[in-house]
């Protein structure tokens, strides 16, 4: 018996990385899962994003856990596309009990060098995408009289970070959105929370552009070059979290064990939370 038997979850950004870990962890807890992902690149993001084959692979992995899965290519920036993903989930799985607004990207640049396009893409995906996802699912959960909403923020949503002002602004915004919505739906049996991970071991971190940011004096730096730098970023000296660690924290927030936890931020920070006020 899993903690989520009989439930249905929608996970955005489910093609790979953290989204895939959410989908699989929720499936192992007993939930059927709908996933969506953009399946294409975003011009200002300096690494390749997921492809339709990634989405299909996640779906096959969920089904291998014995759960049903619906996979839809959708861009969370687009109201019609995220609405279609919600409709597809309802058509195939009849309900949505859980939504994990996980889709996100990262780019970087000094404050004065950030272009309008880079700023816009970051806010559109990482903040507006959460808003549009939650808004699309909200009527379903209100009608059901129950629901669990979780948004992926970041420890970058708890402090300033050089060269990441647009990313940090979006992730701070996610926390404000979560707290505000939690108040609005508190009498509808719906909880709304955020997860703030430290650095997670995904393609968002492991790419040449990000390596170059953290190792500017290196020629063609690799994973082994950036690892000691990331280790120094938190008290536990953990360079990056396994995506499943964050997924397990999320699974707790969407379970009945957390039915009275709402409007809060769960930090999976490797001790970095000790620096926060």
Task: Specify the overall morphology.
Answer: globular
Q: How many beta strands in the DSSP annotation?
A: 7
CATH class type? Alpha Beta
Report how far the terminal alpha carbons are from each other. Answer: 39 Å
- Structural class label: alpha/beta
| Number of discrete domains | 1
How would you characterize the largest beta sheet? 7 strands, parallel
Written overview of the protein:
With 277 residues, this protein is an alpha/beta fold. The protein has one domain (8-205, 240-267): NAD(P)-binding Rossmann-like Domain (Rossmann fold, 3-Layer(aba) Sandwich), CATH 3.40.50. 42% of the residues lie in helices and 14% in strands. Strands 3-2-1-4-5-6-7 form a 7-stranded parallel beta sheet, sandwiched between helices. The mean pLDDT is 97.
Give the gist of this structure.
This protein is of the alpha/beta class and 277 residues long. It contains 8 helices and 7 strands. The termini are far apart.
Features:
277 residues; alpha/beta; Rossmann fold; 7-stranded parallel sheet; 8 helices; 42% helix; globular
Write the layout of secondary structure elements.
Layout: E1 8-12, H1 17-28, E2 32-37, H2 52-64, E3 69-73, H3 79-93, E4 98-101, H4 116-144, E5 147-152, H5 165-184, E6 190-197, H6 208-214, H7 223-231, H8 243-253, E7 265-268
Helix pairs in contact: 1-8, 3-4, 4-5
């Amino acid at each position: 018996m899993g903690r989520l038997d009989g439930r249905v979850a929608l996970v955005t950004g489910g093609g790979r990385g953290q989204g895939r870990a959410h989908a699989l962890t929720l499936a192992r807890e007993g939930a059927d899962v709908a996933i969506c992902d953009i399946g294409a690149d975003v011009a200002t993001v300096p690494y390749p994003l997921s492809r339709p084959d990634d989405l299909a692979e996640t779906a096959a992995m969920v089904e291998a856990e014995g759960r049903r899965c619906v996979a839809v290519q959708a861009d969370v920036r687009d109201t019609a596309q995220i609405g279609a993903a919600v409709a597809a989930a309802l058509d195939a799985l009849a309900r949505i009990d859980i939504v994990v607004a996980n889709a996100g990207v990262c780019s970087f640049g000094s404050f004065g060098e950030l272009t309008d396009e880079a700023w816009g893409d970051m806010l559109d995906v990482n903040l507006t995408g959460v808003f549009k996802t939650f808004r699309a699912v909200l009527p379903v959960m209100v009608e059901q009289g129950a629901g669990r909403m979780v948004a992926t923020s970041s420890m970058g949503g708890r402090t300033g970070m050089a060269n990441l002002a647009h990313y940090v602004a979006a992730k701070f915004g996610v926390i404000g959105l979560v707290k505000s919505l939690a108040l609005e739906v508190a009498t509808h049996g719906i909880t709304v929370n955020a997860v703030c991970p430290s650095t997670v071991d995904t393609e968002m971190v492991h790419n040449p552009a990000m390596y170059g940011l953290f190792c500017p004096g290196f020629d063609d730096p690799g994973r082994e070059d950036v690892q000691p730098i990331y280790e120094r970023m938190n008290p536990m000296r953990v360079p990056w979290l396994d995506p499943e660690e964050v997924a397990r924290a999320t699974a707790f927030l969407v379970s009945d064990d957390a039915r009275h936890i709402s409007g809060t931020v769960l930090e999976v920070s490797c001790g970095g939370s000790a620096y926060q006020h």
